[in-house]
Amino acid sequence: MTKELPLLQLHHVTKKFKNKTALDDISLKLPKGRIIGLLGPNGSGKTTLIKLANGLLQPTKGEIVVNGLRPCPESKSLISYLPDTTYLNDKMKVRDILRLFEDFYANFDRQKAEQLLEDLAIDQDEKLKSLSKGNKEKVQLILVMSRKAKLYILDEPIGGVDPATRDYILKTIINNYSEDASILISTHLIADIEQILDEVIFINQGNIILQENADDLREQQAQSIDQIFREQFKA
Length: 235
Fold this sequence. Notes:
Pfam families: ABC_tran (PF00005)
CATH architecture: 3-Layer(aba) Sandwich
Oligomer: single chain
Number of helices: 9
Number of strands: 9
Order of helices and strands: EEEHEHEHHHEHEHEEHH
Strand content: 25-35%
Distance between the termini: 48 Å
Organism: Streptococcus macacae NCTC 11558
CATH topology: Rossmann fold
InterPro entries: AAA+_ATPase (IPR003593), ABC_transporter-like_ATP-bd (IPR003439), P-loop_NTPase (IPR027417)
Protein name: ABC transporter, ATP-binding protein
Keywords: ATP-binding, Nucleotide-binding
Shape: globular
């Protein structure tokens, strides 16, 4: 029986910006079929790690492997990425953005995206700039989750949205990935998201402090992930 490859592996990865070390000799493996929380205070290295995984940055040292592949166009096509800031043109209609994604990504399921938009009563003829903040966030998430990717990387997907939007986003995340895919969620809003997490990674000052099964960690510590995090990182 062949051992299943991790979806993402980092081998002794260091990333430096001039004199600052953003990630310091980190190694980790992300398995398939899991929702994994990447948790750490601001400036801990979360976004740097995410950009390295996406091939948007190159490591100073070490190696990154995505589903057995070194970074290349094929490895990038396996990852669907939601950045923490919008990159879409506000003046475009939702319909035109769907077309753009369909042209750009061979694995984009337009029918699925249209169904999710219909469920939310979001008019495809609306321009992005005329949507509420919550609906903009939903559109961006729908685009990302409508790709048939292996690894979904979501950077602060629930930052600054109302509780109803947050609940919709969490439900969409749970319902729209397959068993052979995984989701890596970077967030500092741990209490809002911990109920969907299978695993957690704590990162601080460019170091992985802990990687553990979420249920096991709660049982060991007799606390919520949020409480454990606060204890670990209290000033």
